[in-house]
Specification:
200 residues; mainly beta; Immunoglobulin-like; four-stranded antiparallel β-sheet; 1 helix; 15 strands; 40% strand; Ig_sub2; Ig_V-set; Zwei Ig domain protein zig-8
Length: 200
């Protein structure tokens, strides 16, 4: 029974709802009665109650929480690669019962063109019991390949990451340079303070 509207969904092996997504399964020679909901939706969230007509009556409540499926891109939200190297982005969609019919990739607002004259762009898609994985590969990265990349499954919320193609030093080196500059400024400030104290 669905507690929200007190709707009796099933009784024994019979179903009492016009929603064909609901069914009950009772394995032979078993005391188990399993309520199944296919293609579950957020509106299916709520409390469901199983009742056994004994004396005294036995019942058990189960609260179902349904969340929107969410894609996820492996790794940090910002990726740094050197010009000429390979960009590899992996998107995972953990939807088991209803895998996405398609997973699209966008660079900025434009769909990634695998037939682009640029060449070197490919896609690897794998569907398993654990979910769907889509890997975007871009070889010989160009500076123009920088930007926001979005993974958009047909039945899940999108995920994105930002790619920076570098023509010069590595980001770690840039961070070190900035750190060294801050250290030099602090040292210069301290030295100036000493000079002021000595002059007084």
């Amino acid at each position: 029974m669905r507690k929200r509207d007190l709707h009796i969904l099933t009784s024994s092996i019979h179903t009492y709802t016009g929603d064909g997504r609901f069914s009950v399964h009772h394995p032979e020679n078993s005391d188990d009665w399993d309520l199944q909901i296919e293609y579950v939706q957020r509106r299916d969230s709520g409390i469901y109650e199983c009742q056994v007509n004994t004396e005294p009556k036995i019942n058990m409540r189960v609260e179902l929480h349904v969340e929107d499926a969410q894609a996820a891109i492996t790794g940090p939200t910002e990726v740094f690669v050197k010009k000429g190297s390979t960009i590899s982005l992996t998107c995972s969609v953990n939807v088991h019962s209803n895998p996405p019919s398609s997973v699209l990739w966008y660079h900025g607002s434009s769909k990634v063109d695998f037939d682009s004259p640029r060449g070197g762009i490919s896609l690897e898609t794998e569907k398993t019991e654990a979910g769907t994985t889509s890997k975007l590969l871009i070889t010989k990265a160009l500076l123009s390949d920088s930007g926001n990349y979005t993974c958009q499954p047909s039945n899940a919320s999108p995920a994105f990451t930002i790619v920076h193609v570098l023509n010069g030093e590595h980001p770690a080196a840039m961070q070190t340079s900035r750190g060294d500059l801050q250290s030099h400024l602090m040292l210069l400030t301290s030295f100036s303070s000493i000079l002021v104290l000595v002059s007084r």
